[in-house]
Write a structure and sequence with these properties.
It comes from Bacteroides pyogenes. This is Transmembrane protein. Keywords: Membrane, Transmembrane, Transmembrane helix. The protein is mainly α. The chain has one domain. The chain contains 3 helices and no strands.
Amino acid sequence: MPAMFHRHPLSKNTTLRSIGIAGLILFILLPILFFRFPPLGFLRLLLFDFSLNPSQPVNNRDKVNKARNKMVQ
C-alpha cells in the first residue's frame, strides 16, 4: 500500500515534466518554423500584424503597396 502511494505522485510529476518539456520544445521550434518556411509567411504576417495592433485590422496589401511606392520614389 505505501509503495502505491509513493509511485502515484512520481508518475504525475513525470507526466507534468514531459508536458513541460514538450511545451518548451514547441515554444522554441514554432518561431523557427514560422520564420524559416516561406509557405507560412502569410500566417506569420497575420500573426505579427495582429500582435502589433490587435484593435484595428490591417491590410497587408496596402502596406506592401506603400513600401513599393517608397522604393520607386
